[in-house]
Amino acid sequence: MSAHRIHFGPLAAVLPKLTLGAGVPLTSQDRFHLRASLLDSWQAAAFTITNDTVEAALEQRIEDWRLVYPAVAQFCQQLGWPQCPLEVLWLLWLPLAEQIIQWRRSLSRPLVQGILGVQGTGKTTLTRILAVILGQLGWQVCGLSIDDLYKTYAERQQLQQADPRFRWRGPPGTHDLELGMKVLSQLRQAQFPVALPRFDKSAYSGAGERTAPELVTAADVVLFEGWFVGVRPIDPQQLTTAPAPITTEADRAFAREVNSRLQDYLPLWQQLDQLIVLYPADYRFSQQWRQQAEQQMQASGKTGMSATEINQFVTYFWRSLHPDLFIRPLLQDPDWVDLVIELDREHRPTAIYQPASLL
Fold it and tell me: Residues near 75 by Cβ (< 8 Å), separated by ≥ 6?
């Protein structure tokens, strides 16, 4: 069974009416199209909507839309987007937030929501959008990135001197796992206030350094994102015939070392309650996306890496944890992953599904 594909259909004509608020009534034809969008095969399968539940789901979606749209539209403006993508809000962001709320309600403590995506997939932006939506729906949210758990610049310099192969921050081995376990444990147990570590990627000409922590006094949902959050070690034998850019014996030796270090991250992943994967149609889109992100950061006045350094950086990540070997197998693992969101080159969602629905 293949993943259900996303079809936007006639929503482009209906959703603008919703942006005008409850004062603009929806026609029976409008409601028909909105209801049909929720019963579309991909939406129904991803968010478990049936003929019996669609009417309640539709009323909830409309109510939630009217609560969150003004704040989301303002946030899109702050990002510099020409307009808010209404179809994506209706078909992805809002139902994703509603799903996270369901998961949170099943617990008696804060939910730790993992979000996995290779470089440039938009996981940080998605995290911020979900925080806006969940906040408007009455839930307190805090965000944490695997990048926030990097060892200090001095510690990473020591690691590089001991093993020059760790020339960049990023792969397993460059994070403070003790700090990560402490913070996630405190958040799960609602031991507030919690000092969330923060990291400035622009420091030391892009090498980055820790900055002042953020004190969080309450949270219902913790959005924990990163380029290999939830990724598990593989059989080292698979690296013998690994794809490019793992081409030399030195490359394979480094990949085996990183794979071995990944074992130390499993206790951290056990702190996750759910895991969402953002997966590009082609993992090589990462290079283009990383270039765009770096240009935006530099446009804001921060220093960063050159185009050549970015290409070397992204290729280095592929050598350490190749997406085809470490992430692709997760897309069909219902015991580990809860939702998969596939993306095209322009970051548009093309499919979303539960791995369990593929069995």
Answer: 128, 129, 132
8 A C-beta contact, residue 117 and residue 227: yes
**Tokens 């950086």 belong to residue:** 313
pTM, entire model: 0.93
Which stretches does DSSP call E strand in the chain? 111-117, 141-145, 194-200, 209-216, 221-226, 274-280, 339-343, 349-353
- What token pair was written down for 263? 């074992």
CA-wise closest residue to 112 among 271, 335, 338: 271
Distance from the Cα of residue 208 to its chain's centroid? 21
The span from the CA of 204 to the CA of 212, in Å, is 16
* Two structure tokens written together for 228: 């290999």
CA 21/CA 55 separation, integer angstroms: 20
Model confidence pLDDT, tens digit, residues 54-103: 999 999 999 999 999 999 999 999 999 999 999 999 999 999 999 999 99
Q: Are 61 and 98 in contact (CB under 8 A)?
A: yes
The Cα angle at residue 180 between residues 175 and 184, in degrees rounded to 5 = 155
H or E stretch including 270? Answer: none
Half-sphere exposure of 56 (CA within 13 A, CB side): 7
Cα gap 15→5, rounded to integer Å: 20
Q: What is the 3-state secondary structure (H, E, C) of 212-267?
A: EEEEECCCCEEEEEECCCCCCCCCHHHHHHCCCCCCCHHHHHHHHHHHHHHHHHHH
Helix (H, G, I), strand (E, B) or coil at 198: strand
pLDDT at 201 over 90: no
